[in-house]
Every structure is written in C-alpha cells, then in structure tokens.
C-alpha cells in the first residue's frame, strides 16, 4: 500500500525580485513499512521536502498524498488533524515549546489524543531515550543533544504510522546516536512504522531500504541498498 505519494512537487520562494526554486518537479512513492533515507548536500532542499511530505508546509505546485489525504486540498486545521493522527516528526532544530518542561513537551501529542495515561507514557518514552532524570527541565536547561532526544520522544509518543526524522542523530555523540538509531529502526521493524529520514551519515543511510539522492532541488538517483 502506498502511504506517501509525491507528484510533480515544486517549491519556490520569492526573494526580492528573484524567484528561488528550492524543489523542482519531485516525484516518488513510498510504500507502507518502508524505510527511506534522503541524502544530499546542505541547502539542497531536504528539510523543505520533509516538511512538505509531512504537511507542515504547502508545495507551490504539485501534489502530496499521505495515507489517502491530499494536503493541497486541505486547509491548515485539516492538515494538522492528519499530522496528529498519522505523523511523527523529529525536527532538525528540535522545535520544543520553551515554556513547557521536557515531560510536558512529550505529553502534548498524547493530550491531543486525549490519552489519560499521557504522563506515564511520556515518562516511559523519556526514560527510553535516556532522559529519565531530566523530566522537569525546560528546553533552555538542556543540551542540544538532550533537546534532540526530547524531540525524538515526542515524535514516538504519537505512535505514528509514518515517522519523519531530519538528521535525528546530528547532535548526538556516537554512543547515544547508535542507541537512538536502534530505537528508530526497531519501530520500523516491530510496529511497521514507515521511516523517512534525512541524514549526512552514509552508515545510517545504508540501514534503510532505499536512498533518495537530492541535489539542487532535483532527485539525482534512487538507489536500493
Ligand atoms: N522560508 C524560506 N525562504 C526563502 N528561502 C528558503 C526558505 N526556507 C529554505 N530556503 C532555502 O531553501 C534551500 C533549501 O533549504 P533546506 O530545505 O533547509 O536545505 P537542506 O535541508 O537540504 O540543507 C536553502 O537554499 C534555503 O536557503
Ligand atoms: Mg536541513
């Protein structure tokens, strides 16, 4: 079953009088349960593409269909509902809410789903990423790597059908990074979570089923690993 369909997607920004084409006619399909790595140089449009696929942002032209929902036909509230139902997103820059503690940040998606066990579940997830002793810390009181792990626990909290991860181990030491990688791939294996990750790490990319190579906003080649 196709869980994500990206068809003729372009994204342009107007900068002054110039039009900047960040993504140029991108096409690919992803099947449910697959794991995919998106690789490419800095500035090639990887983060932009991930945001469009997750319905966080709108394409300028083209179509993105996630689990049967065509984002271009939905308004912002409807897109948020689709994200809340199906999507986990690990942001490159974490995007934690600064006024909430680590625990409260992870509880947000659980409370949106009105889960009564939000606190217990969020605690378990933070323990899993090695932050059991940082529950009441605010984001400014956490290191970059710790904030990244809170962001990861929050993405897991949704029990997403599809997990997007933007350089999920970019701020972690090797040992912690390996632990997080294993958690992500376990989710793919045990729960069938579709995994789409952006990475600079060739070893991490090789662990996925398929690598999409993007350069200057275009797909270069899709190789099967
Ligand atoms: N909101 C924006 N307005 C204008 N240009 C943007 C915006 N967001 C991203 N860009 C540009 O789009 C290009 C791709 O960015 P990005 O998707 O973050 O690349 P990557 O994640 O591959 O490093 C960059 O050149 C960046 O400057
Ligand atoms: Mg990026």
From TrEMBL:
GO terms for molecular function: ATP binding. Keywords: ATP-binding, Nucleotide-binding, Translocase, Transport. The keyword Disulfide bond does not apply. PROSITE patterns: ABC_TRANSPORTER_1, ABC_TRANSPORTER_2. Pfam families: ABC_tran (PF00005). The keyword ATP-binding applies. Signal peptide: none annotated. Residues 4-225 form the ABC transporter domain. InterPro entries: AAA+_ATPase, ABC_transporter-like_ATP-bd, ABC_transporter-like_CS, MacB-like_ATP-bd, P-loop_NTPase. Belongs to the ABC transporter superfamily. This is ABC transporter ATP-binding protein.
């Amino acid at each position: 079953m196709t869980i994500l369909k990206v068809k003729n997607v372009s994204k342009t920004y107007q900068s002054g009088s110039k039009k900047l084409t960040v993504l140029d006619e991108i096409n690919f399909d992803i099947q449910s349960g697959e794991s995919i790595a998106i690789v490419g140089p800095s500035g090639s449009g990887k983060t932009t593409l991930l945001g469009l696929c997750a319905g966080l942002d709108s394409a300028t032209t083209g179509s993105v269909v996630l689990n049967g929902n065509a984002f271009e036909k939905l308004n912002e509230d409807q897109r948020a509902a689709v994200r809340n139902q199906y999507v986990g997103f690990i942001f490159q820059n974490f995007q934690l809410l600064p006024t909430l503690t680590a625990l409260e940040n992870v509880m947000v998606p659980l409370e949106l789903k009105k889960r009564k066990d939000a606190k217990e579940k969020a605690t378990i997830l933070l323990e899993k990423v090695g932050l059991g002793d940082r529950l009441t810390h605010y984001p400014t009181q956490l290191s970059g790597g710790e904030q990244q792990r809170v962001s990861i626990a929050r993405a897991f909290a949704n029990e997403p059908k599809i997990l997007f991860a933007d350089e999920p181990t970019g701020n972690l030491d090797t040992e912690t990074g390996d632990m997080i990688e294993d958690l992500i791939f376990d989710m793919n294996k045990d729960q069938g979570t579709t995994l789409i990750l952006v990475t600079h790490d060739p070893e991490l990319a090789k662990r996925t089923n398929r690598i999409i190579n993007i350069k200057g906003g275009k797909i270069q080649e899709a190789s099967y690993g």
